[in-house]
Amino acid sequence: MSKVLILSGGSQGIGFATAKRFLAEGYRVVNLSRRPIDLVGAEQICVDMQKRDWLDTCIDDLHAVAKHADAVVLLHNAARHDGDSVRDLAAENFADVLQVNLVAPQQLNAALIPLMKAGSAILYMGSTLSEKAVAGCASYIASKHGVIGLMRATTQDLIGRGIHTACICPGFTDTAMLRGNIGDDPEVMAAITGMVSYGRLIDPVEIVETLFFCAHNPVINGSVLHANLGQIER
Predict the structure, then answer these.
(1) What's the Cα-to-Cα distance from 218 to each of 123, 155, 207, 221, rounded to whole Å?
(2) What φ, ψ does residue 216 adopt, rounded to 5°?
(3) What share of the chain is helix, strand, coil (3-state, %, to 5)?
């Protein structure tokens, strides 16, 4: 059986760990990102999803991959996380974040769904902030709320196709994105882990195992799964 994982943002963090896991399971892995994926056996298509016409340069390659696959797992993982506020978030900046986090996934959907066979899956990477909010990252929060809406629309629009979907919402995961946002201050790290019932960051591999389960179990179709070690609500 020919199985393919097509993912965005696989050059680091959860995306990289996911690519590694699926490759080990016999999947052909195709990564879409600006930076190449440093993983032997994985294929790279260099794209900049920030550009509205990014798909034009690679759609033929993607079609060639998908049309020959017995099953495709499409993982919308790439994301842009800006520090901003509704007090001063400019329309142009807001549109740039939405392009990467919400529009690009739908561009991929429209390009690949017609070629995806029954048994395929479309997985969306959400966030704890897909269903709650904090101050200081308005565009990210709005876009991740939108990701859940797009996932739910996918469920309804693909009824009868045998393609299932879910939105996986990681909590505080030990990735370059998280550490880039919180820095190396031990007090900040203690405050973050103090908000988790297990008192630690999530290992990316733990999210990967959740993704792998979702990719192979249609029973979760339409689900929003919070993988966060039990965050403490205050």
Answers:
(1) 11, 11, 18, 5
(2) -115, 10
(3) 45, 20, 35
What superfamily does domain 3-172+203-227 belong to in CATH?
NAD(P)-binding Rossmann-like Domain (3.40.50.720)
Prediction pTM value: 0.95
CA 43, distance to chain mean position in Å, is: 18
How confident is the model over 100-106, as a mean pLDDT? Answer: 98
Closest CA to 58 of 47, 42, 72, 73: 47
Residue-wise over 48-83: b if at least 16 C-beta within 10 A, else e?
Answer: ebeeeebbeebeeebeebbeebebbbbbbbbbbbee
Lowest mean pLDDT among 71-85, 134-148, 150-164, 191-205: 191-205
Q: Report residue 133 as tokens.
A: 């909010």
